[in-house]
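Checklist before submission:
- one chain only
- standard amino acids only
- sequence pasted in full

Submission:
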Amino acid sequence: MNKTFNLLFFIKKNKIRTNGTAPIYLRITIDGKVADIAAKRYIDPKKWDVKAHKASGNSQEAKTLNLYLKTLEQKVYDFHYLMLKEENFVTAESLKSKLLGTDIEQRILIPIFQEYNDGGSLDRSGFCAWNIGAL
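Returned file contents:
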């Protein structure tokens, strides 16, 4: 069971684009281990509230961005809860992988053909359907 879990939004000022905006990142910290995820949003550093970890102001742009960040934050909490329920232990990297979808093993063509050659047969979706009689 994890003891500490924290989320923090921040901007990377060292990656400012030519239009003056900086990327927003989400930092996941679990038991002192950190993983950063790009929020895929950009903001003018002058419009970022460092203490509140969100866009400052009441403009429509700030409200929309803050709503997006809240939604992303809730998604992280949901995945964290599900992973704790299933695995009973979560790391910052495993949560990041789950969020990004990189935790799913990708099948490449050669192993699929090897599996077919070893006694499976391909169905319409390209997956092997095992021929029990051949085994």
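Reviewer check: The mean pLDDT is 84.
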